[in-house]
Structures are given as structure tokens and as C-alpha cells.
Amino acid sequence: MLGVENLTVRYGTQVALEDATVRFEAGTFSAVIGPNGAGKSTLLKTLVGLLPDPAGRVRFDPGHTAQNCVSYVPQQQTLDWAFPVTVWDVAMMGRTGRLGWLRWPSRGDRERVTAALRETGVYELRHRHIGALSGGQRQRVLLARMLARDGHLLLLDEPLTGVDAATQEQLMALLRAQADKGRAVVMVTHDLEQARRWCDRIILVNRRIVADGTPDEVYTPRNIEATFSASYLGHTHAEA
Ligand SMILES: Nc1ncnc2c1ncn2[C@@H]1O[C@H](COP(=O)(O)OP(=O)(O)OP(=O)(O)O)[C@@H](O)[C@H]1O
């Protein structure tokens, strides 16, 4: 459905991602896993068109574009939760593409948003200001916006962060169901165990793609060490 070929992304002189080739298929739930600074968010942002791709390494199947098929859920902490809008407004952005009334929502839009808010369990909170939500509720609202958009490819950057165990289970089941309905779901996560339980496919990243396959294929001591060891040592020194 969508892939990158030999993708290298630099911020100035720093290489965030090097020679990455990966393809995401319909009906599959993939986890992108790696240490802090490994280039995971960079991969998602390139797929969704938020970073320039001068070499044209992002490839969609015919008829698909980032605009018509991708739903992207950024990291929660990158958003401005003080913005004066309600839960309903944010979910409606999934339909209209923006806040405000530049495009008046149709009845179909309102029905889709209602269904998405019910599916994620925040319909009762629809009139509430987004600043007055807990971390888990915020994540549900972002998922509602994603569902309302009806994309074929769902990209989520650390959806489990700041979410309690019971809510994590619900979110994972919801994403699994989306993949089972034929969507391609891609989640960045630090949680190796949740990824093993719910995902078909694991992609280990540490500036390069270290491994790509089923959890059993990918979770070998050698791959885990190649992905995490150097960075963990680096963090330990930095924090000491
Ligand atoms: N806008 C930017 N300008 C400069 N450097 C950046 C920018 N965004 C990311 N980087 C750097 O690129 C590298 C990869 O960052 P990225 O956010 O993709 O990592 P990540 O794997 O998502 O990390 P984390 O798990 O901490 O969210 C890091 O070294 C980061 O400091």
C-alpha cells in the first residue's frame, strides 16, 4: 500500500534515518520499535508528508496519496492541549481536515464523528474542553479523530504513552480490529511485549532498519542488542 525505498533523512548534518526500505501492507498491524532518537518519528513523519522527501523515496500504490489515505496520530505531547476547542471539534477535524467552519460538516460527517467517539469511549465527553482531559482520554480523542478520517493507513506515534493498563488493552484491541478490517496499522512503541501480543510484524530501528519480520523472527538476543545496547549505554552515561 505504501513504502519507502532506500530512504535517508538528515536534519542539517545529522543523519536521523539511513537507507531505510520498508513497505506497509493492508490488513497488517506493525510495530516500529527502537531507542530514543532512533528515527522512528522521522519515519512516520516522512510517510505522512510532514518532512520533505527530496529523493522521492516514499511510494504509494496507484490511487493513494498521503492526503487521501493516511491518518496520522502524532505524539500526544507535541500538541497544544490548551487550544480552546472541545473533544467534538478535534474529532471533527478528522472529517474536515481543520478546525473551524471553513467546511460545514455534513450529516454524514456528524454521524461518522459520533460513531468514532462512541468506539473510543469518549462520546460522553464530547462537549468538554480538551485541556480538561486526562492523558488516556486525550489519546482516545486522537484515536477518534483518526477513525473519523477513515484512512486506509493508520500511523500512530507512541499511542500507549501515558495510558493506563486497561486503556492500553482497549486501544490495542481497537487497532487490531482496524487491521483485521483490512487497514494497514503502524504504531511506534517502546513496549516490546504489547507489540508481541498484538502485532503481526515488528520493525526494529536504530537509524537503520535492524530487523523486520514476525515477532518470533525479530525478537532474537542479537537483534535486540543491535537495536538497543549502544544507545542504552549512551543514555546511562548522559544521565549519570
Ligand atoms: N526537527 C529536528 N531538527 C533537528 N534534529 C531533529 C529534529 N527532529 C528529530 N531530530 C533528531 O533526529 C534523530 C531522530 O529523531 P526521531 O524523533 O525520529 O527519533 P525517535 O526514534 O522517534 O525518538 P523518541 O523515541 O525519543 O521519540 C534524533 O537524534 C533527533 O534529535
UniProtKB/TrEMBL annotation:
Q: Does the keyword ATP-binding apply?
A: yes
List residues of the ABC transporter domain.
Answer: 2-231
Superkingdom as given in the UniProt entry: Bacteria
Keyword Cytoplasm among UniProt keywords: no
| Keywords recorded for this protein, A-Z | ATP-binding, Nucleotide-binding, Transport
The terms under GO molecular function for this entry are: ATP binding; ATP hydrolysis activity
Q: Which residues cross the membrane?
A: none
Please give the family membership noted in the entry: Belongs to the ABC transporter superfamily.
What is the protein name for this chain?
ABC-type Mn2+ transport system, ATPase component, mntA
* Species per Swiss-Prot/TrEMBL record: Deinococcus aerius
